[in-house]
Amino acid sequence: MSAAETLEAWSRIDAWLARHAPGYRAHLNAPVVAEELRQAERQLGVVFSPDLTAWWSRMNGLAPDARSGAPSYQGHLLPEYNDPYPLAQVLERRALHLEAVGETVPPSLADQLAAWLTRCGEDPAGTLYPDEASAVWLPQWLPLAGDGMGGGLFTDLRPGELHGCVVRFTRTGHAAEPEWTSVAGMLTFVADALSDVAPDNGDLGDGTHIGRWPVPRG
C-alpha cells in the first residue's frame, strides 16, 4: 500500500477523532518534520517505508504524559490497547529492546549473538522468530506503538516484499507472522473499524469496544 493510502486512511481517522474523541486527538503531537525523519534514518541505518513517513508527516504519536493524572479521554487508537509512540520514544524504546536482547547472554557469547542478529538482519522483511527461547529484537525493527504493559507493535524495516510490515510483540516474544503488511494497511483497518462502530451520523456511547480494543472516546 502507498503513502497516498496512508494519508487517506489517516484523514478518515482524524475526522473520526475530531467528532468522537477530541480529547484524545488533542494529545497527538504535531507532525515530525522531514529533516528529523532523515536524521533518524541515518542514525538507525534503515530506510523508513513511504507509508510510515507519510503517517509521521501527519502526527508524531501520543504525548508521553497524556495518560498521567486524570486524562480527558479514554480508549486507544490502535487495537489491543496500543497507542502510537512519538519518534523520540520510538528511538528510546528500540534502544531498550536491543539492550535487553544483549542481556540475555553472558559476555562470552556476545560476539555469537551479534553474528546471529546480523544474519537475521539479512533475512527478508517479515521473517520472524517466534520459537526462540528468549525474546528477539533486531536493529531493523522499529517499535511504533505500545500497550503500556511491555508489548506493542513494531514495523520490520529489512528489505523485501514485506518491508514496512507491522508485527505484534509482547514482553516475552513476538507473533509468528505480520498482523498487517504495511502501516497503510494497519491505518486502513483502523479507519474502517472506527467507521463501522460510529458512522458519521451516529453517536459513540460509553465503553465501546471492538473485541479487545477499547476505541478512543472523550
UniProtKB/TrEMBL annotation:
Q: Where are the transmembrane segments?
A: none
InterPro entries the UniProt entry points to: Knr4/Smi1-like_dom, Knr4/Smi1-like_sf
Report any Pfam family annotated for this entry: SMI1_KNR4
Classification via SMART domains:
SMI1_KNR4
Give residue ranges for domain Knr4/Smi1-like.
Answer: 31-192
Which SUPFAM superfamilies does this chain map to? SMI1/KNR4-like
Superkingdom of source: Bacteria
- What protein name is recorded for this chain? Knr4/Smi1-like domain-containing protein
| Protein species of origin | Streptomyces montanus
